Amino acid sequence: MTIQITGYSISPFCLVLFHVLKELGLSYEFTQPGSFEEIKSPEYLATKHPFGKIPSLSDDGFQIYETRAIARYLVNKYQGKKNSTVLIPSDVQKAALVEQFISVEISYYTQPLGKLVGQLVFAKRRGNEPDLKIVNEAREELEKVLDVYEKLLEGKDYLTGEFSLADLLHIPFTNYAIKAGESDLWNKRPNVARWWKNISERESWKNVLNEYTLA
After folding, report:
1. pLDDT tens digits, residue range 92-147?
2. What CATH number corresponds to the domain at position 48?
3. Which residues are listed as membrane-spanning (predicted)?
4. 68: containing domain
5. What sign for the dihedral angle of Cα 173, 176, 182, 185?
6. Which residues have a Cβ under 8 Å from the Cβ of 179 and sit 6 or more positions away?
């Protein structure tokens, strides 16, 4: 049985899956498409991802795409098999809170953060100048979101009180933003800064950073 991921190592979405796999103590194989055109090919669309995106995962013949769906699948199937790390608790109410903060991450946090990183990191990587209007608007929106996070994290080290998949999903995009010079957004908020320190210093995340070259 082999877990196989297809994607690009610089992708925040692939980085999420590498981190999940390492937290769960799972080995895997990673394949990068030869070109961006390849992920639009009829074969890729038919066998990996019908929208021509990454990542996708194959597990003993089972195929699944979309990052958060893959992450939940891995947790549901493998959590507790290799180690004691818990990313989604078995308690119904605790699990519901994890899902709540995953929804918060998708809806409010990663929306502006993705725009910011898209301009400051990936536009530059493509040889383009960042669109400063998009950068400033994304930064302003993220300021408001992080103000709410500052309140949510009062007296807590993690979003639900214990490290979970909800925290993990925030890490790759945030890491890119901080590397791009935006660390003050997190550092000037004590609760947010404490939370970021806690989640970014996970050994499994450090292992991801050591293994892969980011953009």
Report:
1. 999 999 999 999 999 999 999 999 999 999 998 899 999 999 999 999 999 999 99
2. 3.40.30.10
3. none
4. 3-78
5. positive
6. 121, 214
